[in-house]
Design a protein that fits this description.
The chain is of the alpha/beta class and 264 residues long. It contains 10 helices and 10 strands.
Length: 264
């Protein structure tokens, strides 16, 4: 479903602020894989997701989504392949529009637009049914402005919108980091359920080792723009925080400050 081959990215080349964010990264995700991506600040995690999403062009290498080469496609043309949830709950929704209008936009992502009536009764009923699954009472607030929702409600709505059309690939960029612990746990549980029920292929960036270990069927750790740890299957199921730190130290050749990684 995702094939990344030898991609590299350097920001501000030739200047005093030059930063090599990705170094010859290759990664293959099969349909239904749920991969968590972990690493310290500046390791390249979010850069990798942004490269896949087309937020900037890569310097070298190629990216394919479901067999389509998207390496040179701009961000808006990749939208039909992707669902994205960002760290900031305010980013994935339009606060001045109401809930059903936001969902209607998500339903039409990547499709041609016409002049027919915006939201049909059948669509409105579907939105209600989808919102019920969140168990937040939003199904009775379709006409409420999204800007009036709490951060957790808004992030849950963004997650639902990102998966309305069952994207080829779901990108989750620290999507629980800005939420309080209780709300973050609820949104993460929703994420696990939606990915499993829809059999989605997903990549989730996180700083939280516990979440990285307990979520998905595969875990990769990045350091200095490279993938240094890649575990899956039974090996991942048995993984502990200490195991993960030991794997990192063996692969990267240096000690990992686990507490700094967890809390950064």
């Amino acid at each position: 479903m995702l094939k990344i081959q030898n991609i590299s990215k350097t920001f501000n080349p030739g200047t005093i602020t030059e930063k090599t964010a990705l170094q010859e990264v290759s990664l293959l995700l099969r349909e239904g894989d749920f991969v968590t991506v972990i690493g310290g600040n500046g390791a390249g995690k979010s850069t990798l997701l942004n490269a896949v999403a087309g937020a900037f062009p890569v310097d070298r290498g190629s990216i394919e989504i479901d067999g389509t080469d998207v390496t040179r496609l701009p961000e808006h043309k990749r939208a039909r392949f992707l669902g994205r949830v960002f760290q900031d709950p305010m980013t994935g929704t339009a606060g001045t529009m109401n809930i059903e209008e936001n969902m209607a936009l998500a339903m039409r992502r990547g499709k041609p637009r016409g002049l027919k009536w915006g939201i049909t009764p059948a669509e409105r009923e579907r939105y209600r049914e989808c919102l019920k699954s969140l168990e937040l009472g939003l199904e009775d607030r379709l006409s409420s402005k999204v800007g009036l929702l709490s951060g957790g409600q808004r992030q849950a709505l963004t997650l639902l919108m990102a998966t309305l059309q069952a994207p080829k690939l779901l990108l989750l960029d620290e999507h629980t980091a800005a939420l309080d612990p209780k709300t973050a746990a609820k949104v993460l549980e929703m994420t696990r359920r939606i990915v499993e029920e829809q059999h989605l292929t997903a990549m989730m960036v996180t700083h939280n080792m516990r979440d990285a270990i307990s979520t998905g069927n595969r875990l990769i750790m990045m350091n200095d723009g490279r993938i240094v740890v890649d575990v899956s299957g039974e090996e991942k199921q048995k993984l502990t925080r200490k195991d993960l730190m030991d794997l990192f130290e063996k692969a990267a050749g240096k000690e990992l400050d686990g507490d700094r990684l967890l809390l950064s």
